[in-house]
Known about the structure:
- By secondary structure, this protein is α+β, with helices and mostly antiparallel strands.
- It has two domains: 27 residues; 250 residues, outer membrane lipoprotein receptor (LolB), chain A (Clam), CATH 2.50.20.
- The chain has six helices and 14 strands.
- A twelve-stranded mixed sheet has the order 9-10-11-12-13-1-2-3-4-5-8-14. A two-stranded antiparallel ribbon has the order 6-7.
- The longest helix has 44 residues.
- It is globular and about 105 Å long.
Amino acid sequence: MDAGRLGARRCLLRKRDRALRLFTSTLLSAALGLQVGCTDEDDRRDDPAPDAVARVRDAAQRTLGAGPADLRLRVSSRSAAYSARGAIELATDRSFVRVAVARAPRTHYDRVMDVLALQGETYLVRGASPPAIQNGKLVGVAVPDILRALRSICALDPHGPVGNLGGAASVQEALALAGVAVRLLRDGTTKATPMRERAGGGATYRVEVDPGQARVAPSAEGSDETIVVAPRRLARQMAPLAVELGADGLVRSLALELRDFRPVVFAPGVRRQRRGERVAVQIALGDFGRAFSVETPRCIAME
């Protein structure tokens, strides 16, 4: 190949290289610009709403101040299941419910119980419940009153949580947990991720909380409730909660799971649990601001 043809070929190659570098540089710049644009958009789409934590905390605060509400409660595990319906004032942990027990093979139980919670004390106000009976004897009742008491027992402090069915959170713990959970949303929410948005403006969030912020109502501080319920014990067992907020900005339902539930005490008639249970608790709230009045009943202390 002569020198002229070789020089022309080299010139052509240099021009091609310059064009290729220019094309590559232009393509890379465009790609980077597109990538930056996509990243910003993707971040906005995947962001779990920076204000979600504030929204959940605010809803919990408003719910605590909304007054008494209708309460529906479901508690279940492999060992026991029951439901309850009544009314609750979350700010004070006052409540009154009728409990329907579906199954509880680890202990004797009444299929229907009425339970009242007031100022850190919980009362069984209907039914001859076995926690009042030890070794075949009715404890804490004078002999002349035994027959009357058996027909309609009102008991408190039955050497364990009221409504302890074995293998699941007791009625006393579940009722307290409603208020504990809402206060925990207010004071201890650390992360809230939207799961579903509703057409009317409500939404469901997956919420993680700091269990160290769990507490009973101020009116129950220093009472038996603090020992029997042990809010931080329950909160440490919680998986992330599913929290539904209504269009009115109030907490409408909570779905939570206690991952390794063990009773804090063992009531008479309840076989000692050697393993932890996974306990599902569903709490539904509605009709806020309803009239609700409870008085301390005349009950028999079983302690």
